[in-house]
Amino acid sequence: MKNIKLRLIVMNFLEFAVWGAYLTSMGTYLAGHGLGMNIGWFYSIQGIVSLFMPALMGIVADRWIPAQKLLSLCHALAGAFMISAGMYGYMAGDNVQFGMLFTLYTMSVAFFMPTIALSNSVAFNALVKAGLDTVKDFPPIRVFGTVGFIVTMWIIDLCGYQPTAWQFVVSGALSIVLAVYSLTLPECEIKPAGEKQSIADALGLKAFKLFGQKKMALFFIFSMFLGVSLQITNGYANPFITSFGAIEEFASTFGVQHANILISISQICEALCILLIPFFLKRFGIKNVMFMAMIAWVLRFGLFGAGNPGNGVWMFVLSCIVYGFAFDFFNISGALYVDQETTPDMRSSAQGLFMMMTNGLGATIGTLSAQAIVNHFVYAPAENGATPIEIWTGWQNSWYIFAAYSLVVAILFWLLFPKTPVKK
Known about the structure:
This protein is mainly alpha-helical. It has a single domain, classed as Up-down Bundle (Growth Hormone, Chain: A). It contains 17 helices and no strands. The chain has helices at 4-20, 26-32, 39-49, 53-63, 67-92, 98-129, 134-158, 166-182, 199-202, 214-227, 232-242, 254-257, 259-274, 277-306, 313-341, 347-383, 388-416. The two termini are 24 Å apart.
């Protein structure tokens, strides 16, 4: 377990560098190649595969294949398919077909999404074996995942890859690197083959028993509701900001020219907020921390609607700052809470269930709903000859709808979820 923190830092850096290479810029590439009205499908497929793949891989990791080896296998397959998607997009040029690109991308995402939960399991396992405190020691390690995400965002922006398919190639290459590196990580335990187990245990359904506990059932349900918001700005923030390029007043602004770098303020603040999680969880408990995240989502969307890349750019910046609280106080705190509330034999399955509810059900509903809203207010009017100002108004209406939804969820959560302090 020598240098275990450093080894886990490298794992987290690469894990999220893979995602950062395309997650915030893919929308601009799709919109620039005639697939703007399909942006939601590319982001929702992450949610669709998360309905079953993280839970399935969690079961496999708990029962048959050590988590670090399964992490390697998943990244190898995800990387191969993502590189294939990038090479297809590059060779097809302006004649990219939705079917082929979407199929290759879907296969990659199907194997990538489980790696988020698997990497958490690998990290928690290694920290416990080393006698360390997951609540205290995991956040400073996880922060380097966000650093990796930011680094690849900047690389894609500065290399001019935002509107090109090369972003997929970069992502796939990093995934292959992590596939190799994962094999060097500490061994994770699996359930002994000779140990008697029920049918539910054999199928890895034990984690679903958590729904029998009222507080956990409410936690997972509201995780789904909050998961609705997760991918909306990832899919639409970049094309929204770059769309200001059609308005002469904003065409030469920094935000329009370097949308990914502007958006990366979100990830920078996310990295800083991760370090606050141990204090906030121990001081306020999971209910207050998740409520803070929900209010932050309200501000995230509302400020996007009110701002612009000119004299209103401060609102974009403020929106990016609150994103750190919106994302971390939900995703990272939620993963730690699940780890605290589950036993080691179902750790991977429970993390997979959390992913299924958030990045699965929640994100699928959210991205498909967002696509319908943005298509109605933005892309359909654009195809019918709407002016740039009218399109801007359509974007504003969309962001305000997202903000209103987040506010309703926050109010319901505060009224229904019991006060539950994190175990010390």
